[in-house]
Every structure is written in C-alpha cells, then in structure tokens.
Amino acid sequence: MFHLLQAFLLIFAFSLFAGEPDFGKFDGSGVVLDLNTSKRTVFGPHANKRLNPCSTFKILNSMIALDSGVVKDENEVIKWDGVKREYEVWNRDHTMHSAIAVSAVWFYQELASRIGEQRMREYVSRAQYGNADTSNTLTDFWLGNGSLKISLNEQVNFLARLMRNNLEMPQHVMKTAKDIITLEKSDTYRLGGKTGSCGGAGWFVGFVQNRDKTTVFAFNIKGEGANGAEAKKIALEYLKR
User: Fold this and answer.
1) In CATH, which of 1.10.10.60, 3.90.79.10, 3.40.710.10, 3.10.310.10 is domain 24-239?
2) What are 158-173's pLDDT values in tens digits?
3) 19 and 43 in contact (C-beta within 8 Å)?
4) Residue 164 CB: number of other CB atoms within 10 A?
5) What distance in Å separates the CA atoms of residue 149 and residue 81, rounded to the nearest whole number?
6) Of 87, 154, 166, 187, which is the most buried if we count CB atoms within 10 A?
7) Which of 188, 161, 192 is CA-nearest to residue 174?
C-alpha cells in the first residue's frame, strides 16, 4: 500500500510539474516547440491570432542590419541623439548588444532608417515573418498600430528556422542574433529570449538549449498591466519547471 501511495504521489507531482502556464489575470496564450521531436504544445486560444510583434522584432531587425552592412558588427556604437526618452537606460550611446538588452527603441529605429524601406520589405518577406507588411511606417511598423503582425505559431516557426540555421542569412549573422538575446548560459544550458510590449500586449519569445535538446517558445498576454516583463515572468516560471 505504501509503495502504491508513493507511486500515486509521484504521478501527481509530475502532472503538476508538466502543467500549463499560470497566466493569472491575463488573457494569455503560448506555443512551445521541441525541435528534437517536432512536438508542438499550445496553451490558450490565440496561437494563430496575429498581433504587432513589438520589440520581439528586434531579433530580425538585428540580423537585417548586420547582413545589410548598416552596422559593421554588434559592437559598433551608435551615438545617442540627445532626446530624453521614458527610460533612463535608453538615454545614452548604445551598441546592438546593449540596445537589445534594454530594448532601446530609438536604436532600432535608427537601424531601420539606415536599412531603408525597400531592403527592409525584401528581408522581412524573405524571412516569412508574419504578414511581412512593413508599409506603415519604416520606423514603427512593428510597434502598436503598425502594419507588421505575427502570431505565436509564426513566431515559433521563425525561431525554429533561426535555431536550425535555416534562415536566408549568413551563419555568423544567425549566431550573433542568438548571442545577443542570450540571457543565461552554462556548459550545458542556454536560455535566450526577447520581450516586447505595445498595443496593450506583452510578448516573450526565445529558445532553451539543455544539453542536446532545443526548444523554442512564444508567449503572449493581453489585459490590464500586460507587458513583456509580465509575459517573461510567466514563461520562465513554466519553462524552468
């Protein structure tokens, strides 16, 4: 009887461990894709609903900037224009590496301006990134009320191609993109991710490499107080189980 009880408790504990993300008060959805088995797990009702990508687009924007040569590498410094913005960490010179870490919008708007409308349109279309609509306007099409929209499933598909080095980008560009969004790293584990906040929604997208297993994910929340930091908290609580 004791052993049966032990087995029951272990099964119960595992069911909790493998449960769904806790979206709390938010209207949340998520998609997790195991690249080793191609198993896709979907949470919530909105996996195919397209929304503005907000700052998660900085992943692709970085690669386009690098491949097009508008910056020489991720360490090139772009001078702050002196305009005071809402976050103090934005109000300084930045490299791509530092700008993506604090999600400095002005830096990526400068990159978009350097890339130009035609090249941006061609790159985004080639990457099969959401609806690939960059028409409204060059420096904010990915933000709230912009023309570019992408679903959770499309985010995961894009990240899967990135992690498999299967985008139409040079290998060193894809490697750099993964490096600049890496949040945690050890000899056997690596977590990469990017938040996004706009239009009343919060995103957290990225990847986990744990020994030989690679997983990509996308989480989105909507509702009062929804932002990328909250989406990240929910996603990491689930992923780190």
Assistant:
1) 3.40.710.10
2) 999 999 999 999 999 9
3) no
4) 12
5) 29
6) 154
7) 161
Place of tokens 């993506």: 100
* Residues in the chain with pLDDT values less than 70: 1-18
The domain locations on the chain are 24-239
The greatest distance separating any two alpha carbons of the chain, rounded to the nearest whole angstrom, comes to 72
Q: Pull the structure tokens for residue 103.
A: 């999600």
Q: Which two tokens stand for residue 133?
A: 């609509």
Q: What is the distance between the alpha carbons of residues 201 and 203, in angstroms, rounded to a whole number?
A: 7
pLDDT for the residue numbered 14: 36
Chain Cα centroid distance, residue 18: 23
Residue 113 annotated in active site: no
The whole-number pLDDT of residue 18 equals 57
Q: How far, in Å, CA of 65 to CA of 58, rounded?
A: 10
**CB 219, CB 28: distance < 8 Å:** yes
Q: Output the pTM of the full model.
A: 0.92
pLDDT at 241: 82
Q: Where are the beta strands (DSSP E) in the chain?
A: 27-34, 39-43, 182-185, 189-198, 201-210, 213-222
Helix (H, G, I), strand (E, B) or coil at 73: coil
Strands (E), 24-94: 27-34, 39-43
